[in-house]
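Colleagues,

Please find the record for the two-part complex below.
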Amino acid sequence: MKHKTPAQKLADKIYFRRLTVFGLMFLSTILATLKWITVMPTDSVLFTKIVLIGLFFLTFAWISLFFWSSLFGFFDLWFKRPVPGIKWPGDSTSVSGKTAILMPVYNEDSSSVFANLAAIAEDLKNQGAAEYFDIFVLSDSTNPQCWVEEEKIWLAARRLISPEIGLYYRRRAKNTARKSGNIEDFCRKWGSAYDFMVVLDADSLMSGKTIVQMVKLMEVNPGAGIIQAPPMMINSHSLFARMQQFAGRVYGPIVSSGLAYWQVGDSNYWGHNAIIRVKAFMQCCSLPVLPGHAPFGGHILSHDFVEAALIRRGGWSAWLLPQLRGSYEECPPTMIDFAARDRRWCQGNLQHIKVLLSKHLHPVSRVHFIIGIMSYLSSPIWLSFLLTGLLIALGRWVFPPIYFPEVRTLFPTWPIFDKIGTISLFVLSMAMLIMPKFMGMIIYKRQNPQMSGTLKSVLCEILVSALQAPVMMMFQSKFVLDILTGHAVSWNTQNRGDNGTSWREALRRHFGHTFLGIATTVIVALYAKELFWWMLPITTGLMLSVPLSVLTSRVTTGRKALEHNFFVIPEEKKIPPLVNRQKYFEKLLQAEKTPEKGVVLLIGNPALLALHRLMLPVNGPAPEFDKHVLEAAQIKLENYVNHHIRPEFSKDEEIALLYQPDILTRTSVSLFL
Amino acid sequence: MVALKIRSADDIVKACLLSLGFSEAQCRNHLFRIRKRLPEGEDDILRALNDEMAADGRKIFENCRPDTDFAALYKFCFLQAGGARKWPADFLADNISSTFRRSMRQQYLATSPEITLSSMEPQKIEPVIRLRWWHRFFRNWHRYFKSDKQK
């Protein structure tokens, strides 16, 4: 018998894994669809039958992939099987390459951003690896007040960070291609000086141990282009965020382990909390501008998936390693903020339709794109499925069944409705959706036996997420419709504050959902009684969308849940030292903030002004301004200096002034006259 | 430029010194010395002061990139080092003392590492299947309707 090389054995293993996951997905979907064909109402026309079968197939395939992937993830975690094909570094492996830690920011709270970096830097110093790292804050901030504050807090944060680690700041004058352009700009200017780069998000926090481990992994696996550490949510206060945080902590590991099971070295990149080989990135990841106009054309929004696919196309591997812990992020605090983030991601993912058929991509990269697209298309598909079912039922009221057709028959023609079959399919679908949650809970309890209140939290989370699901379905369906009709999204800063949603705001955002919920309930109760109980879980979620959105957005309800031991994660019982240090640094940096902002802050603080002047060349050439904008800004500045009238600059005026260091210096000196 | 109230040259130098952390008394002590360093009959006192600071900055931070804003660097380091309190006499002095030079250098901060420009080749994203007829239809769909109406 011919002996196989380790590489061939690995290839066979990967092939088998993919075959089992996707084979089982297709098999279960086909069997369920065949069953669906037998239980479908017999009195509908052929067209609606085909539509219903198609929509059922797509919906079931989607939940089935999630189920089978999670099941294999569960077994991998239970038997503690590592991801095959990647070499883990030994204890003696030392760090030798230079790594840049990149923090792209866009009008974020600078004290929180720099506190995260100070905590990471301190942890790296504790690991004895500080000299191998530099940190870059790559600002794309368009708000002039954020810009000046970033410079001020950068200066303060330098004092908190070991001098062995360089902490650098640069702001781009023009934020071409958003985050991907920002990273690309870094690579073009400084990339050649670094072997690896760890890309973070504004709310990312990673332990020094994890970062060092990732660098070592890169060093012992020279073919690795990307290594993604699955981030865990922390620092949540509102009920919504706490539930997301709990769900991520309990179900997240089996989801990521399931993905790693079949993706192996062809994994995806989630845009942050990952290490990238700079050489591979520079070789493969200069993203093109897609032909056509936004939302499908233009700069690629969800750049991460595309970068992973291009790196894979370039012959490098990409890994998702669930074993990597100490990687954290934060969650949007409210359902509305969550939906706003989804709007951006939805456009980014649907834009991938154009990339999906690109030449020479790895088949698994194409699967990543399909999964990303489907995660948003699944909502309108589900909605269409519900609407079609409802229309068929209403059709019966408009065109009642004819029991005795003109052609004489022995028996009346009954419309057949297989209630048992429908219920069994419903139970199967629900089981496939909910079982992974319980599997996640089993692993979680095994790893954290000290945690109590897990079962009640899981049950409560299932209930609330079931109520939220129809609201998210409506949101996402609208987003898809908006995008398909050519409405592009603008680049807004993600809300990370804990202000909660007001009743007025909730009513404005969820009025349509509530109305639809009430209208559907009334229509179904009057004209399609047999669907009433089937539709109730969906219509209830819609009818309760306003109170659900408001109550889950509150910190007080989140705190109440915590007091009653709901949604508590181990990181809250025993806060990781890294998180404590981040909070400590944030408090220190918050104290640096002053009521003065922007130009007024700068001209009143000569040291900061001198620093601003020093940093202007790094930021690149000044953009061109309308002469009148600068003139208007100067008049306001004159009034401030000579008559103490507080200036109310427009954004353009303030930015224009910030690019005029001589004017600012003269004004600053004149304040001392 | 921002129109300022007309002041004497001494007032402007004093304002500059105050902005650098000098006290009123220190201003009185050092004003004459600093005025002497500025060119006679100079209209733009602030610019002249900046040029002097840049000249001294260039001597102190001799290893910096030539395109550095040395006046800003000098000011920044002087302020960060508490220069007005510790070395008022060394500010724009004829000879830069070694302790002053060392203290100023200690405050130096690199805003970024040396830029070494590299190129990145834009990647091609070409569809495997060219859906020409499909694209053509959707690009020109309004024309189909128009021609229908004309018929």
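Residues 612-670 of chain A form one domain.

Comments are welcome before we finalize the supplementary table.
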